[in-house]
């Protein structure tokens, strides 16, 4: 690289490094404090990550065991995992079916139904919260997996997103499969879905991130630890008097771990799609 | 009709499978997305404290606005603003624009009376939450747009390490907000050993209360705070002049941290779509960098700007998770926007009917804002 180019790029690297440092600082803080002793969270408090007193003198791995077992975060973690997976399977099924119908099948009222679907995407959760709570409790689904997952088994947003991608599958391909006697379900499963793998993967990631992060609905419909998800567990850990800093940070680290892992594995794909279509939630 | 029978039946079959395919999604969305809208209206007409009791008609709405007069004042203000905007949009005759400005001025004056009236007679807490929501939107969306655009300019183009920067910048947006908010809750806690207070100490400044501080930032910096006798015009507007509470400002910092990287990537995507010829032509014409920015870059990224502005504003009206974690109950609701305040009305207060009516007001605002943004910005946005 010649010197002129280097000089031209220097400000860019300075700006981006500063931004990256700010993005990472809270994560570094979380890691360092999750490994401190209680006393160290009060005494070793340098705000500078490059100073040794930002870090614990001896990493306390037992903090993780303590929240995992003592505060039952392990159990909530498992609950969240089940809730996310059930929601994911349901959403993917209903969204793929509906998106296929909106993209490739002709039926009267198609556009009208589609706009009604999109309407649900605009409504704030605050508005649907009370009626949905009343419905779910009337059905006796509070504190149950059904109550936690059912409202999220379809999403207008994912249908919208998948429809865009399904539309790009050539009609000729679908037509010729039809002439060969393939049913619509067959065409969806063996032609359209495999061709839209990237989009479906992104939808899956967004949905997991979404249900893993959901808080308002579980707060309302879950009263006992039985199906309490990790988000609610974590907020309880925070609001409980006496929950110590190092335990809170250990809990937060456990809560972000699965999402961060998937993100690291599939970063390219996720960054590409999120910045391209620009959407989450 | 000369359609062969086999084809006709295949048409019917196709339509049938179409309905069958959308059925599962339609059932779920209908039951948990559309029906609640109607049901919510129904609930809002009752005195419904956990259990349904007396039908009160518009009583809950009456309690929110404090009677017909404040409500009509608000309506008048809305009407004046709309008429004014219509007139302002006209190119000629130029006299109409002056009239439009006059109408906008009248609308502001009406608002200046209507809001204190609601505060005095209606639901003061909800109106406080409204103020928090407005500050929250004003304090986050524009900053995110400007910072995001600047960062986009830095990450735009080809250079070594670009991918790594992109991955890191999107990280705050990707990970669960409940967990990162839990970290900020500690970073900005009121103890003198908290990170934020340690940073202040490095500069020789005294520690702040951060998330617990209910006082406005302008009040803290410039010293002007609530004045006048309670219930009056002055008292109401001086509470605006105090600015967003420090506790809300801390939440804004968190929000900006979460979204700036995301905004930057969306903008970078918009920048990448601008054809290079435009810049070449501008260079040939000898346009200054500022002119290029104003005449070429900004108009051509306007679809991204529009998308982000709409998303940002609606987002602040929907926001819940991070604020639920970051809010300090001791701050007395100084950082609760409407979405959070309504949630507590329902969740802690058990006033289902009243909270449902409040939620309808929120819905009306979100819908109104969306429509307005669409109208105004569609004219400004340049689509290729």
User: How many separate domains of chain A?
Assistant: 2
Order of helices and strands of chain B: HEEHHHHHHHHHHHHHHH
For the sheet with most strands of chain A, the description reads: none
Could you list the spans of chain B in which at least 5 consecutive residues all have pLDDT below 50?
none
The largest contact between protein chains, plus residue counts on each side, is: A-B, 90 and 97 residues
Oligomeric state of shown chains: heterodimer
Low-confidence stretches of chain A: none
- Total strands of chain A: 0
In CATH, the topology of the largest domain in chain A is named: MetI-like fold
Give the CATH level 1 class of the domain at 124-208 and 243-384 in chain B: Mainly Alpha
Number of helices, counting only DSSP H or I runs of 4 residues or more of chain B: 16
% residues in beta strands of chain A: under 5%
CATH H-tier superfamily of the largest domain in chain A: MetI-like
Can you identify the CATH class of the largest domain in chain A? Mainly Alpha
Look up the CATH topology of the domain at 124-208 and 243-384 in chain B: MetI-like fold
- The CATH superfamily of the domain at 124-208 and 243-384 in chain B appears as MetI-like
Radius of gyration of chain B: 25 Å
| Average pLDDT metric of chain A | 90
- Distinct helical segment count of chain A: 15
Rg of chain A, nearest Å: 24 Å
Which percent range describes the beta-strand content of chain B?
under 5%
Q: Which key features would you list for this structure?
A:
heterodimer, A: 281 residues, mainly alpha, MetI-like fold, 2 domains, 15 helices, globular, B: 384 residues, two-stranded antiparallel ribbon, 16 helices, 2% strand
């Amino acid at each position: 690289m010649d010197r002129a180019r280097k000089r031209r790029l220097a400000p860019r690297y300075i700006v981006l490094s500063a931004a990256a440092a700010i993005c990472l600082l809270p994560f570094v803080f979380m890691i360092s404090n999750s490994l401190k002793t209680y006393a160290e969270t009060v005494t070793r408090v340098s705000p500078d990550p490059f100073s040794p007193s930002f870090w614990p003198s001896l990493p306390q791995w037992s903090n993780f065991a303590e929240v995992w077992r003592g505060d039952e975060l392990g159990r909530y973690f498992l609950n969240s995992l089940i809730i996310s997976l059930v929601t994911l399977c349901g959403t993917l099924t209903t969204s793929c079916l509906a998106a296929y119908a909106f993209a490739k099948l002709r039926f009267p009222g198609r556009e009208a139904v589609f706009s009604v679907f999109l309407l649900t995407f605009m409504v704030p959760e605050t508005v649907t919260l009370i009626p949905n709570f009343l419905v779910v409790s009337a059905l006796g689904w509070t504190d149950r997996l059904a109550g936690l997952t059912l409202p999220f088994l379809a999403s207008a947003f994912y249908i919208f997103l998948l429809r865009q991608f399904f539309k790009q599958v050539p009609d000729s391909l679908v037509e010729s499969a039809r002439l060969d006697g393939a049913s619509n379900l067959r065409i969806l499963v063996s032609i359209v879905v495999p061709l839209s793998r990237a989009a479906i993967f992104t939808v899956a990631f967004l949905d997991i991130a979404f249900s893993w992060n959901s808080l308002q609905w579980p707060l309302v419909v879950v009263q006992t630890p039985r199906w309490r998800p990790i988000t609610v567990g974590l907020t309880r850990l925070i609001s409980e008097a006496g929950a110590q800093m190092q335990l809170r940070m250990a809990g937060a680290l456990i809560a972000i771990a699965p999402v961060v892992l998937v993100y690291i594995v599939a970063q390219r794909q996720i960054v590409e799609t999120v910045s391209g279509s620009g959407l989450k939630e | 009709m000369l359609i062969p029978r086999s084809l006709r039946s295949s048409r019917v079959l196709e339509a049938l499978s179409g309905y069958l395919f959308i059925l599962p999604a339609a059932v779920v969305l209908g039951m948990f997305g559309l029906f609640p809208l109607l049901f919510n209206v129904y609930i809002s007409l009752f005195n419904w404290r956990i259990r349904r009791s007396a039908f009160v008609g518009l009583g809950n709405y009456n309690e929110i606005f404090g009677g017909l007069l404040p409500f009509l004042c608000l309506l008048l203000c809305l009407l004046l603003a709309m008429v004014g905007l219509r007139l302002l949009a006209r190119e000629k005759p130029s006299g109409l624009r002056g009239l439009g400005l006059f109408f906008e001025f009248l609308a502001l004056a009406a608002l200046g009376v209507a809001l204190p009236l609601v505060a005095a007679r209606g639901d003061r807490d909800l109106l406080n939450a409204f103020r928090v929501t407005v500050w929250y939107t004003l304090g986050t969306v524009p900053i995110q747009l400007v910072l995001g655009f600047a960062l986009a300019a830095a990450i735009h183009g080809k250079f070594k390490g670009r991918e790594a920067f992109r991955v890191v910048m999107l990280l705050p947006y990707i990970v669960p907000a409940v967990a990162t908010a839990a970290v900020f809750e500690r970073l900005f806690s009121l103890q003198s050993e908290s990170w934020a207070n340690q940073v202040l100490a490095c500069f020789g400044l005294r520690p702040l209360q951060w998330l617990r501080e209910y006082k406005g930032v302008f009040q803290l910096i410039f010293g002007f705070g609530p004045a006048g006798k309670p219930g009056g015009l002055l008292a109401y507007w001086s509470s605006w002049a105090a600015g967003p509470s420090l506790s809300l400002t801390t939440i804004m910092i968190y929000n900006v941290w979460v979204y700036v990287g995301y905004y930057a990537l969306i903008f970078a995507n918009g920048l990448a779509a601008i054809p290079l010829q435009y810049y070449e032509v501008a260079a040939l014409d000898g346009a200054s960098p500022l002119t290029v920015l104003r005449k070429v870059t900004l108009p051509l990224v306007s679809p991204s700007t529009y998308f982000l502005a709409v998303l940002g504003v609606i987002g602040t009206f929907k926001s819940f998770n991070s604020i639920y974690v970051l809010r300090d109950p001791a701050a007395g609701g100084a950082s609760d926007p409407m979405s959070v305040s309504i949630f507590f009305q329902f969740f802690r207060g058990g006033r289902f009917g009243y909270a449902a009516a409040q939620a309808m007001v929120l819905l009306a605002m979100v819908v109104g804002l969306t429509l307005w943004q669409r109208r105004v910005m569609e004219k400004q946005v340049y689509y290729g």
